[in-house]
Amino acid sequence: MTAVQLANPVAEARRAPADRQTRAPLRVCMISDDFLPAATGVGVLLQSVSRELARRGHTVSIVTTRRPGEPELEIWEGVRVNRTFTLKVYGFYQALPSRRRLARLLREEDPQIVHYHYLGVLQERARRIARELKVRNVYTYNMTAEHLTQPWPLRPLRGLIARRIIKFCNTCDRVLVPSGALLQQIVREGVRAPSQFLSNPADFPARPEAGAKPAGPFAVLFAGRLEPEKNVPYLLDAFAAFARSCGPCVLELAGRGSQEQAMRRRAVRLGIADKVRFLGFLDHARLGERYAACDVFVLPSLVETQGMVAMEAMRFAKPVIVTDRIVSARELVDDGSSGFIVNADDAGNLTEKLSRLHSDAALRERMGLAGLARSERWGVTRIVDETERCYREVLAG
Predict the structure, then answer these.
(1) What is the rounded distance in angstroms from the CA atom of residue 211 to the CA atom of residue 319?
(2) What is the pLDDT of residues 213-228, one digit of tens each?
(3) Are residues 363 and 253 in the same domain?
(4) Rounded Cα gap, residues 99 and 127, in angstroms
(5) Residues 105 and 243 grouped into a single domain
(6) pLDDT value at 199 more than 90
(7) For 257-285, how does the pLDDT look when each residue is reduced to its tens digit (9 = 90+)?
């Protein structure tokens, strides 16, 4: 069976009987190396979706990493959080549970659906156990081989890992892909499991009033890990050129990562150390404050499946700038209307767009409101409606 978008005739044929069946609560177990506290966009979306599913009366459990000081079992927002033995590898926590413990966890949780949100040892082992237990499997394609091989020792393995991802997808009952362009890409690469586009949610209430920020320097915001794929040096270079002529301005970098010290040194070399603020990791509430206080949000990444932080900034009526290397760039931003898409190899292109937004407050407001309207499609309720429908289709099939 080939992968398709929402117009999958098989899914459409199943939808009517699936919707007519009794809306019995579902039992769902989600598998992810990141969850609470969220260190990545995957952890953020998983919190949003699991919380909403539990609120609707479904039985939701998580199997995830266990970091220092965390209990093995916790009830969070009605969700059972099971934590397993974990090591930190290349800056990321990776769960390495024994097969025996993982099998016991899955038998105790007794899910109808196992939903994978990450890729690693935990997911591979859980998939094999779920197959033995004859449990249905759904995978959200949040990570490409490029994501998983950013540390240079892993880059020679990129081709092998790409093939393993395809193989993993093809063992699942459904693959959810948060970008239509990425969906077409993975089909070309060999994914044959039934697949559909389903956006991740942007879990912030709409904040149109946030478009008018308090008086102060022109503020540019980035949020994400300070890692090579986020392309922060490009942002620093563009901002340095912009800062030479724009007057009072500030660049805020929200996040941590292996490149933080290198970025601090680069800011000093560029003469902008007094204009760059390294905010560190921010929780959901504090990040919302920074979205509200900025004038423009920039996501300079070289690798993204969707770019949730850009979606969140749009919920605050902010113009957004993304690079053309992001596979979902044109799904995120209507270039020239809700923001700009810039050349990831040309920092001058980003400098020019920052200057244009700085000089035109009316343009910032128009773009922010256009982005806010665009963001309505990413509301949590709508996304979880589609997720629940997917689960019922898979069970009906």
Answers:
(1) 9
(2) 667 899 999 999 998 9
(3) yes
(4) 11
(5) no
(6) yes
(7) 889 999 999 999 999 999 999 999 998 88
Between the alpha carbon of residue 115 and those of residues 147, 357, 390, the distances in Å are 20, 41, 11
List residues bridging with 250 in a β-sheet: 219
Residues 16 and 164 reside in one and the same domain? yes
pLDDT tens-digit readout, 375-392: 999 999 999 999 999 999
Whether omega before 37 lies within 30 degrees of 0, making that bond cis, reads yes
Q: Which whole-number Å values give the CA distances from 282 to 57, 224, 254, in the listed order?
A: 30, 10, 7
Distance between CA atoms of residues 262 and 264, nearest Å:
5
**Range of the structural domain that residue 373 is part of:** 208-377
Location of structure tokens 């850009």: 310
Residue 337 lies in a domain: yes
3-class SS at 196?
A: strand
DSSP 338-356: TEEEE-TT-HHHHHHHHHH
Rounded to 10 degrees, the C-alpha dihedral 214/220/224/229 comes to 170
For position 274, which CATH number holds? 3.40.50.2000
Please give the tally of structural domains in the chain. 2
Output the six-digit token pair for 270.
Answer: 């560029």
Condensed to tens digits (0 to 9), the pLDDT of residues 158-197 reads 777 788 899 999 999 999 999 999 999 999 999 999 999 9
Report yes or no on 76 lying in a domain. Answer: yes
